[in-house]
Amino acid sequence: MEPPWRGAFVPPGVGGGEDVAEGKCVGERQATPPSPWRLSCQRGRATVVVPVRTSRVIAAGVASAATLALPAAAAQIDGGMSAHTFVVLRRSVRQSLTRFIRFGLPLYCGGSRRRDVALTFDDGPGPATRATLRVLRRNGESATFFLVGRNLAGWPDLPRAEATLGAVGDHTWTHPFLTRLPSSAVVREIASTQAALERLTRMPVLLFRPPYGFHDRDVDRDVRRLGMLQVLWSLDSHDSYPPPGASAAQIVRTLARSLRPGSIVLLHENLRQTEVALPALLLGLRSVGLRSVSVPDLLAVDPPTVRQLRSGIRGCPSARA
Ligand SMILES: [Zn+2]
Predict the structure, then answer these.
(1) From CA 256, how far away is CA 277, in angstroms rounded?
(2) Fewer Cβ atoms within 10 Å of its own Cβ: the N or the C terminal residue of the chain?
(3) Contact 149, 123 (CB under 8 A)
């Protein structure tokens, strides 16, 4: 007997028609969703077409709940990775991101009502990006990549691959200390990178992370004016700082000790120790039932409360910045 699908979506005001949800899956087999939903799994992408009016609302009233967990379908598709297979309605992701951009406050973590965390990789793209993407894809995990504009020319095809696996954010053009620059230079650093990333990914780029995490009220205001969400972190892996960065074993230990549901984790692309740590780190995630999602997906499925957001990093459980 097929176990029932469970899920929660359709915030008030979504309206009728069909919505398309996309997620990840492994394998090519078709699963049989309850009529009239349509599900396919091709080349690792799960697509679900859901007639909005007939979709079941499990958690009505939870305005931002937008996850469809698909255990039955997932079990058929990937034979055992059901806990890692999920889809998020694209429309709901857009809505929740827009909501947080409007708040205009830096984001440090998600909520802690689910088992999701967001791994973030700064300073790419670069020579190790492909390997990082391969490991993430093989494990069915996702991530967010904050990219530096001046690195893009060397690897123009990678931002789109990163955006497809998770999400891409802006990490300035030259990686300066923004708090030492006049506002005009701050805006130039961010806007030029955003434009280049949008051209390469063919997607809107609305996430921003300041280099070294250095920001102040002026930087915050500039980011707000650019209509972007500033994303900091609640857990530093210390893979990069203090130099030369923690060893792979230390990175894995730090995360094993301090990861909590809703954590946003700071990691770096193109550091040998991070690359070495990644497989063990993902294994560790799974062993405690956590899953990595992109920052936009985290905001859609498990957003921080407004009170958490206003408290900054103090609003994050077990923050270690
Ligand atoms: Zn950086």
Answers:
(1) 12
(2) N
(3) no
- Euclidean distance between CA atoms 199 and 116, whole angstroms: 30
Q: Which of 53-62, 77-86, 103-112, 259-268 has the lowest mean pLDDT?
A: 53-62
Where do the structural domains in the chain lie, given as residue ranges? Answer: 6-89, 104-315
**Superfamily designation of domain 104-315:** Glycoside hydrolase/deacetylase (3.20.20.370)
Instruction: Count the alpha carbons within 13 Å of 55 in the hemisphere toward its beta carbon.
Output: 29
C-alpha 239 – ligand 1 centre gap (Å): 12
Catalytic annotation, residues: 122, 268
Quote the CA–CA distance of 316 and 177 in Å, as a whole number: 25
Q: Of all residues in the chain, what percent carry a pLDDT higher than 70?
A: 70
- pTM equals 0.77
Q: Per-residue pLDDT tens for 175-204?
A: 999 999 999 999 999 999 999 999 999 989
The alpha carbon of 83 and the centre of ligand 1 are apart by a number of angstroms equal to 32
Residue 21 CA, ligand 1 centroid: distance in Å: 32
Between helices 217-225 and 183-201, what is the axis angle to 10°? 40
Give residue for tokens 């004016």. Answer: 225
SS3 207: strand
Mean pLDDT of the chain: 79
State how far Cα 317 lies from the chain centre.
18
Q: What is the pLDDT of residues 245-279, one digit of tens each?
A: 999 999 999 999 999 999 999 999 999 999 999 99
Sign of the dihedral through C-alpha 24, 29, 34, 38:
positive
Taking CA atoms, 130 is separated from 16, 52, 127, 133, 285, in Å, by 40, 37, 7, 5, 21
Q: Where are the beta strands (DSSP E) in the chain?
A: 6-8, 18-24, 38-42, 45-51, 67-69, 86-89, 116-124, 144-147, 167-170, 207-208, 229-230, 235-236, 264-268, 291-292
